[in-house]
Amino acid sequence: MSRDLGAKLGKAVSALAFGVMQFGGKADAPASRAMYDQARAAGITLFDAAYIYTDGAAETLLGEFSQSERDNLVLISKCGYAPYQGRAALEAQVRESLRRLRVDQVDILYLHRYPGDDLLDEALECMRDLYRAGAFALLGVSNFAAWQVMKAQARAADLGAPPIEVLQPMYNLVKRQAEVELLPMALAEGIAVHSYSPLGGGLLTGKYASGGAGRLTEDDRYAARYGPTWMHEAAVALATVAKEVGQPPEALAVAWAATHPGISAPIISASRPGQMAAALAATEVEMTPQLYARLSALSPTPAPATDRLEEA
Ligand SMILES: NC(=O)c1ccc[n+]([C@@H]2O[C@H](COP(=O)([O-])OP(=O)(O)OC[C@H]3O[C@@H](n4cnc5c(N)ncnc54)[C@H](OP(=O)(O)O)[C@@H]3O)[C@@H](O)[C@H]2O)c1
Prior knowledge:
Layout: H1 5-9, E1 17-19, H2 29-41, E2 46-48, H3 57-66, E3 74-79, H4 87-101, E4 106-111, H5 120-132, E5 136-142, H6 146-159, E6 164-168, H7 182-189, E7 192-195, H8 215-218, H9 220-225, H10 229-245, H11 249-259, E8 265-268, H12 276-280, H13 289-296
Parallel strand pairs: 1-2, 1-8, 2-3, 3-4, 4-5, 5-6, 6-7, 7-8
Bound molecules: NADP nicotinamide-adenine-dinucleotide phosphate.
NADP nicotinamide-adenine-dinucleotide phosphate binds at residues 19-22, 26, 48, 142-143, 168, 196-202, 205, 207, 214-215, 250, 267-271, 275, 278-279.
């Protein structure tokens, strides 16, 4: 299977995706519009939304902004966040996402979380029927373990559902679990990967080292996810390297994630228009093998799946 989503969709596919999770939340409508325009001016065509973001405001704003150029964009949404609520809920969510986005079809539809072994077939049958009804072009899964992707892929084939063509895992300099199984699997199986949280929810901007505020001081889930001291030390070390090479740490962090051969496009995001430029500068970073190795050394390389450390 090819990982070329552009060829599959017949559309231009940018090297970065933009996530609208903050639209209608921390970013009001004018701020969201400004960020959408910045993303478009930088050539971004991939826009990542979800049914659950900001109670629907994110999809509604994206639908409004993208209406006049919808055919040039890859509009992406997700259904079925945990806990899984059954087939009727999935169908209702997708119907509502399409209405908010003002489209008959999204380009990529993700199952947002693994529905559970017992409910996997039901969820895939629902995806099959939504696909046949034209609700989406390509199927993706997000936050799945590698074995769950392969299990779902096999069940999808048996049930006549479309294949899984894109994954959306978390991946950044301090969250590297995807390197162990997911990214090698994606390369081997020809599955594209749009990775989320390239800045570790803002940790890798370096702002928390100087007492800054943001998602990590406001959201307990992110505070816990990025709580370990070594992660904060890695963010400080990243800022030092960034200063040395004359790039913002955000640009280095996004470029680092994008450099892994398994990654098709990291999904950048911001809560204010003024934050955008630093991550967008990722496309200007000259990621030499030396710089990539230096950045990779800022955090522990995860152990191989076989646990044969001496052979890694
Ligand atoms: N599939 C999933 O389960 C899942 C989960 C999460 C995200 N996503 C997708 O991935 C996208 C990106 O994820 P993410 O938002 O976690 O990405 P991220 O790049 O790790 O974090 C972005 C956040 O960092 C902070 N930030 C960014 N630039 C900054 C700057 N220059 N200075 C200071 N702070 C800055 C902002 O938060 P504050 O200002 O609040 O600190 C911003 O919202 C989302 O929009 C969504 O589409 C998917």
